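To the wet lab folks,

You asked to see what we're planning to order before we commit. Fair enough. Below is the target structure as tokens, and below that is the sequence we designed to fit it. If anything looks off to you, flag it before the synthesis order goes out.
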């Protein structure tokens, strides 16, 4: 059996064991608080047929990816600026290092006071949370650009655009995609949590609503959807890295 096939079998075995353990706990516990796998799948199918799931998923993902895009632009710009300019690094890096470990969700009440309960506050909150992992990766990537290649490009009279295309981007892309891979699940978590409060749409709102009705099967069904979105986004980024960063095909993610 090929190595790829063995890896696939191992992954499938892990999924099967997890599902089996879940079902066994649900049967042994015999409580509504932990529904069985079949109950969750039935509720998921009903949510899909009703169209309600797609409406709320679109609300969550549209705001989430808007915040992620802002974090990507800001994190990349500030990370590159700090890595390339010692004055910007001296001014901003200590502040960013101090704010990074602070739980940004603790600032959500302040964000709500400033931007209200609408979409803007959620986009800002996602941007705050996702900025830092992207900044760290872009800072490290910019510092990792080989100086000898920069000097070689300068000696061969390569222009600024050519230097960016031939030297800087090939070094930065793996770091950028790694930062995006870390930030994407954070985005889903933040959107879910912020939709618990003062919201009438989104996947987080659905989880909160079903939990308040003690309809845990439906709540778990929405959680499964969030997990599938996270898995799909992760695999997409890994595939993109494999195709774009082709000189690192041997790197397994």
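Sequence we intend to order:
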């Amino acid at each position: 059996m090929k190595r790829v096939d063995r890896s696939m079998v191992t992954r499938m075995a892990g999924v099967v064991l997890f599902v089996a353990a879940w079902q066994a706990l649900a049967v042994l516990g015999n409580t509504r608080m932990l529904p069985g796998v079949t109950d969750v799948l039935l509720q998921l199918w009903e949510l899909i047929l009703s169209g309600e799931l797609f409406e709320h998923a679109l609300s969550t993902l549209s705001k989430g990816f808007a915040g992620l895009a802002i974090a990507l632009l800001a994190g990349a710009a500030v990370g590159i600026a700090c890595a390339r300019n010692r004055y910007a690094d001296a001014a901003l890096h200590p502040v960013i290092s101090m704010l990074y470990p602070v739980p940004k969700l603790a600032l959500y009440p302040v964000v709500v006071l400033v931007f209200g309960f609408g979409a803007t506050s959620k986009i800002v909150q996602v941007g705050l949370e996702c900025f830092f992992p992207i900044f760290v990766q872009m800072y490290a990537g910019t510092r990792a650009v080989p100086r000898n290649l920069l000097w070689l490009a300068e000696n061969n009279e390569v222009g600024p655009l050519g230097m960016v295309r031939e030297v800087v981007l090939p070094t930065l892309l793996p770091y950028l995609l790694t930062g995006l891979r870390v930030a994407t699940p954070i985005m889903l978590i933040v959107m879910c949590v912020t939709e618990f409060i003062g919201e009438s749409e989104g996947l987080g709102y659905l989880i909160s609503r079903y939990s308040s009705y003690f309809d845990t099967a439906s709540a778990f069904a929405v959680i499964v959807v969030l997990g599938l979105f996270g898995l799909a986004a992760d695999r997409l980024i890994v595939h993109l890295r494999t195709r774009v960063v082709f000189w690192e095909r041997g790197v397994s993610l």
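Structural context that might help your review: The domain at 56-200+234-248 is CATH 1.10.3720.10 (MetI-like fold). The chain has a mean pLDDT of 85.

Thanks,
Computational group
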